[in-house]
């Protein structure tokens, strides 16, 4: 009985009587700096404390035996260690390892500019893309104010660092877009086909980009669509050039958007005199549908469809002739389908994939000649990212492209076509040695079944953080791109054109200020040139080198945000029908742009201005000795815009380009044959009109009255 | 007999301990809620948040400790002298805890309101940049919280405050926003008549402040 009593008493005592253990110590980081506010506690107990401003902690526990001490703090890896609580005093000095996060880690910024809100290394925000005056709501228009680009005023496409427009590949949710620009004719500027409102983020690289992106010699532009719109709303736009109507229905699991827009410049052109001889002003009809569905907890499915039809009809003077010249009529039909999926599995894996199909049909009537051009591009892609930990992740993926091209003169019963397959695989590892030093190593392999060649392109980049505000990055990459369709359709054996990029980048970012400077060298090889007998060879070569500087300040002037970009490009290349390396027409040597936005709250208005300038485009004058020996006058365009927020859901936007009324001249066109005196007749290449005026009214109707098309500004 | 006695003693002992566990939870919560109310400096807030997260670790089925951790990190992000990055870091924590609370207690008006509050705070770090694409999400969360419990004064207050801020940004009328804040004050009165214990009961002071701002703009 007594023994049992002892047992019971002991048992009961064990519940109520404990020996006390004192735990104390300090918590510091790997550099020995104190960590205040760390949570220090014994696992599965209430016993614990926080470190004070000196990084010290002290608490007592009645637990006994071996216990686990846990130390956690914001920005550090949680540390666990066994302690023996039978001791009366435990003293510990603990070091925590820093976690590498977006907030503290160095970023590889060589070549790239990301428009996103969440990364500190960004130079532009998503909204900047649509609020840049002079861009008139065109994604590429806004990007042309960024370093490394040249504004070619009579073209409208994106020209990067001495490369032509085909050297920039455009991706829509990771999938390639074929014929991303509307069809136009020489001298009439075009636009990108997609509204900037579709996109939540833009990644724009002017060189040295990741192995994920191929078939682009100079640049990759990655546009990512909005994930899930949260609001059901109807958007109405009335503009001097047309109108649009869109509706978004938003649900918990899925959402859908449909929109219809129609643009027609005819009424506008009847009011504002034009310098081009229009028979029928450009017009376009665009229907779009979008569907997104949440897939489980961390998954998303997106579907997008767009149909566009457009046309223009004009007369272009021919050098040496006095009549209206050549009659050019273009009809374009375009369809784009994009399906993409993204799914996280566990903490370690991210799977992404999708497919896109672009289908473009042009019918051109040039005087009495009818031409048809049909292009189709299918892209399939799958990739996975493996997140080993905060220091290491690894991306692997595979892609397949099916290309179809056909050109025909139906009346003459002439046609030729090609169908090609290109398969690619890529791998890339990202490693952070510390939060100050990161490296990316990747490679891309491609097989082109048309010329039956295999291509391997390594990519390397690294970044080093000097201090909290500044960092250096370097990048090297090898790039290849198949020859343009109109060459390949004549010679399927043509090799891919190639480029090597070498980039050094410096970035300084402080709240409200960004300074970015980059130097680059790009070596071109295997460019396509016209052979002597009407054939094509890969004998072309060349280089582009230069420096660009970007400075942005959102702080010094109240309610004002401005940026200044200067790009210097020196480029020589042998391509096309040139017999030697020349400065190409699309590579002006000096490029400058200044963009400013000022918010006047008393007027509920944002006033914006942008000025683009370049030192002139080289052109070839057959009346002079040499090739590309002449340069057009400086190009200059100052645009102003004004956005007025009438009510939260009604915005009025007005813009005018070339306020100073400069007569920009892009060079001269020459007659094919010299006249009796041996002179080639010439015609200046001019702008379509001195100014472009735009007025638009944007109305949003939704239950939530604060909704507006602010993004439209 | 002997075994029964032994068993009984053990059972009683265990019972006491279990009871102690439950009491310990409530008591720890009560003590810490008081500390939260008294906290002023970042250091004090951090210590309270740490304690809540310890309680949360120990009581994996309770949503309140995670809720309070999330709430405190949100409050911390509003402290003066913090850089944008620091504010974001606190708000990342706040969102993590609010999401944790939402997992433990789905469709809980208080938790949804807190998720909205943390998002609103994030928006306020860079209003000009984040406003356009985050406003809708914040509004939606507050709307959802009000729908889940129309008597939740915090949901209505936060919605009113969000609308007030938006109206000020756009220089439009604050009538609707102020009416909501007034409405939340009535709900706070009603709430004050009950003993909320460790349930969320903050916000009356904030409601009075916004209400005061409303009156001064009227004048």
Task: Give an account of the 3D structure.
- The complex is a heterodimer of chains A (about 725) and B (about 220).
- In chain A, about 5% of the residues lie in helices and about 55% in strands.
- Chain A is mainly beta.
- The relative contact order of chain A is 0.11.
- Residues about 710-713 of chain A have low confidence and may be disordered.
- In chain B, helix 5 runs antiparallel to helix 6 (about 125-150).
- With about 220 residues, chain B is an all-alpha fold.
- The interface between A and B is large, with 44 and 44 residues.
Provide a brief overview of the structure.
The complex is a heterodimer of chains A (713) and B (219). Chain A is mainly β. Chain A folds into two domains: 19-96, Immunoglobulins (Immunoglobulin-like), CATH 2.60.40.10; 112-712, TonB-dependent receptor, beta-barrel domain (Maltoporin, Chain A).
Q: Low-confidence runs of chain A (pLDDT<50, min 5 residues)?
A: 709-713
What is the total tally of β strands of chain B?
0
Largest sheet of chain A: 22 strands, antiparallel, barrel
> For the CA atoms, what is the radius of gyration of chain A?
31 Å
User: Pairing-aware structural class of the strands and helices of chain B?
Assistant: mainly alpha
CATH class of the largest domain in chain A: Mainly Beta
Strand content of chain B: under 5%
Task: Describe the structure using short key phrases.
heterodimer; A: 713 residues; mainly beta; Immunoglobulin-like; Maltoporin, Chain A; 5-stranded mixed sheet; 5 helices; 5% helix; disordered C terminus; B: mainly alpha; Serine Threonine Protein Phosphatase 5, Tetratricopeptide repeat; 2 domains; 9 helices; 81% helix
Task: List the topology elements.
The complex is a heterodimer of chains A (713) and B (219).
Chain A: H1 2-16, E1 21-29, E2 39-42, E3 48-50, E4 56-61, E5 66-72, E6 79-84, E7 89-96, E8 112-115, H2 126-131, H3 139-143, E9 149-150, E10 159-160, E11 168-172, E12 175-176, E13 199-205, E14 219-225, E15 233-239, E16 242-250, E17 254-264, H4 266-271, E18 277-294, E19 299-316, E20 326-345, E21 349-366, E22 369-387, E23 392-409, E24 414-434, E25 437-448, E26 453-465, E27 470-481, H5 485-488, E28 497-510, E29 513-530, E30 536-553, E31 560-574, E32 590-600, E33 605-614, E34 618-619, E35 630-631, E36 635-647, E37 650-656, E38 665-670, E39 682-686, E40 693-702
Parallel strand pairs in A: 1-7, 11-14
Antiparallel strand pairs in A: 1-4, 2-3, 2-5, 5-6, 8-13, 9-10, 11-12, 13-14, 15-16, 15-40, 16-17, 17-18, 18-19, 19-20, 20-21, 21-22, 22-23, 23-24, 24-25, 25-26, 26-27, 27-28, 28-29, 29-30, 30-31, 31-32, 32-33, 33-36, 34-35, 36-37, 37-40, 38-39
Chain B: H1 2-38, H2 42-58, H3 64-77, H4 84-104, H5 109-125, H6 127-148, H7 153-169, H8 175-192, H9 204-218
Helix pairs in contact in B: 1-2, 2-3, 3-4, 3-5, 4-5, 5-6, 5-7, 6-7, 7-8, 7-9, 8-9
């Amino acid at each position: 009985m007594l023994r049992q009593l002892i047992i019971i008493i002991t048992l009961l005592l064990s519940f109520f009587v404990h020996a006390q253990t004192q735990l104390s110590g300090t918590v510091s980081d790997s550099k020995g700096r104190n960590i205040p506010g760390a949570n220090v506690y014994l696992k599965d107990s209430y016993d614990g404390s926080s470190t004070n401003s000196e990084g010290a902690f002290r608490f007592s526990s009645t637990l006994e035996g071996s216990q686990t001490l846990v130390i956690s703090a914001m920005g550090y890896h949680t540390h666990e260690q066994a302690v023996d609580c039978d001791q009366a005093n435990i003293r510990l000095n603990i070091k925590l390892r820093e976690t590498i996060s977006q907030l503290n880690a160095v970023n590889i910024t060589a070549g790239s500019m990301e428009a996103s809100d969440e990364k500190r290394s960004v130079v532009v925000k998503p909204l900047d893309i649509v609020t840049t005056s002079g861009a008139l709501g065109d994604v590429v228009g806004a990007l042309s104010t960024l370093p490394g680009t040249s504004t070619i005023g009579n073209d409208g496409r994106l020209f990067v660092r001495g490369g032509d427009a085909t050297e920039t590949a455009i991706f829509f949710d990771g999938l390639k877009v074929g014929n991303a620009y509307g069809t136009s004719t020489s001298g009439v500027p075009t636009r990108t086909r997609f509204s900037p409102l579709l996109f939540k983020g833009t990644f724009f690289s002017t060189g040295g980009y990741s192995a994920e992106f191929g078939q682009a010699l100079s640049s990759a532009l990655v546009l990512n669509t909005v994930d899930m719109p949260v609001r059901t709303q109807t958007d109405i736009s009335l503009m001097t050039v047309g109108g649009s109507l869109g509706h978004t229905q938003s649900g918990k699991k899925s959402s859908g958007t449909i929109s219809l827009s129609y643009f027609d410049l005819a009424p506008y052109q009847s009011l504002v005199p034009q310098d081009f001889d229009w028979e029928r002003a450009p017009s376009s009809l665009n229907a779009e549908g979008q569907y997104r569905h949440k897939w489980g907890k961390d998954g998303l499915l997106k579907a997008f469809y767009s149909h566009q039809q457009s046309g223009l009809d004009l007369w272009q003077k021919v050098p040496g002739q006095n009549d209206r010249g050549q009659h050019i009529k273009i009809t374009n039909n375009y369809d784009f389908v994009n399906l993409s999926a993204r799914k996280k599995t566990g903490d370690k894996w991210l799977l992404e994939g999708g497919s896109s199909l672009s289908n473009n049909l042009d019918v051109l009537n040039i005087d009495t000649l009818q031409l048809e051009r049909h292009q189709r591009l299918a892209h399939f892609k799958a990739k996975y990212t493996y997140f080993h930990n905060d220091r290491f992740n690894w991306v692997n993926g595979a892609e397949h492209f099916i290309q179809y091209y056909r050109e025909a003169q139906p009346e003459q019963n002439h046609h030729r076509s090609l169908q090609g397959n290109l398969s690619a695989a890529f791998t890339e590892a990202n490693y952070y040695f510390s939060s100050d030093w990161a490296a990316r190593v990747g490679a891309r392999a491609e097989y082109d079944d048309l010329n039956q060649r295999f291509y391997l392109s390594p990519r390397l980049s690294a970044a080093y953080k000097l201090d909290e505000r500044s960092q250096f990055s370097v990048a090297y990459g090898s790039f290849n791109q198949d020859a343009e369709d109109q060459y390949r359709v004549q010679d399927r054996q043509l090799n891919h054109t190639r480029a090597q990029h070498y980039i050094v980048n410096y970035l300084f970012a402080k709240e409200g200020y960004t300074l970015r400077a980059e130097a680059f060298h790009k070596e071109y090889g295997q460019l396509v040139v016209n052979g002597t007998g009407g054939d094509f060879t890969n004998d072309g070569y060349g280089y582009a080198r230069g420096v660009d500087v970007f400075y942005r300040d959102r702080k010094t002037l109240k309610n004002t945000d401005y940026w200044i970009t200067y790009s210097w490009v020196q480029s020589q290349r042998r391509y096309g029908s040139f017999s030697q390396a020349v400065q190409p027409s699309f590579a002006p040597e000096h490029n400058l742009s200044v963009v400013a936005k000022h918010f006047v709250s008393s007027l509920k208005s944002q006033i914006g201005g942008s000025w683009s300038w370049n030192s002139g485009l080289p052109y070839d004058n057959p009346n002079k000795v040499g090739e590309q020996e002449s340069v057009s006058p400086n190009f200059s365009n100052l645009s102003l815009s004004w956005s007025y927020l009438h009510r939260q859901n009604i915005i009025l936007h007005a813009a005018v380009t070339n306020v100073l009324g400069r007569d920009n001249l892009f060079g001269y066109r020459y007659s094919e044959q010299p006249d009796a005196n041996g002179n080639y007749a010439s015609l200046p290449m001019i702008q379509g009109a001195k100014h472009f005026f735009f007025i638009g009214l944007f109305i949003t109707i939704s239950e939530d009255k604060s909704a507006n098309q602010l993004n439209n500004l | 007999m002997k075994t029964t006695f032994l068993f009984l003693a053990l059972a009683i002992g265990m019972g006491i301990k279990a009871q102690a566990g439950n009491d310990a939870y409530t008591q720890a919560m009560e003590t810490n809620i008081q500390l939260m109310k008294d906290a002023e400096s970042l250091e004090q807030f951090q210590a309270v948040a740490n304690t809540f997260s310890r309680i949360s670790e120990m009581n994996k089925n309770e949503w309140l400790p995670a809720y309070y951790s999330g709430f405190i990190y949100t409050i911390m992000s509003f402290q003066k002298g913090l850089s944008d990055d620091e504010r974001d870091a606190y708000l990342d924590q706040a969102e993590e805890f609010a999401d944790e609370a939402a997992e433990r207690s789905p469709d809980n008006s208080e938790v949804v309101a807190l998720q909205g509050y943390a998002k609103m705070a994030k928006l306020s770090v860079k209003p000009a940049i984040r406003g356009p694409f985050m406003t809708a999400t914040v509004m939606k969360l507050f709307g959802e919280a009000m729908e889940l419990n129309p008597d939740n004064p915090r949901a209505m207050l936060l919605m009113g405050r969000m609308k007030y801020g938006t109206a000020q940004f756009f220089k439009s009328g604050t009538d609707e926003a102020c009416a909501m804040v007034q409405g939340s004050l009535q709900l706070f009165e009603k709430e004050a008549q009950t003993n909320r214990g460790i349930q969320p009961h903050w916000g009356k002071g904030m409601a009075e402040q916004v209400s005061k701002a409303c009156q001064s703009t009227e004048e």
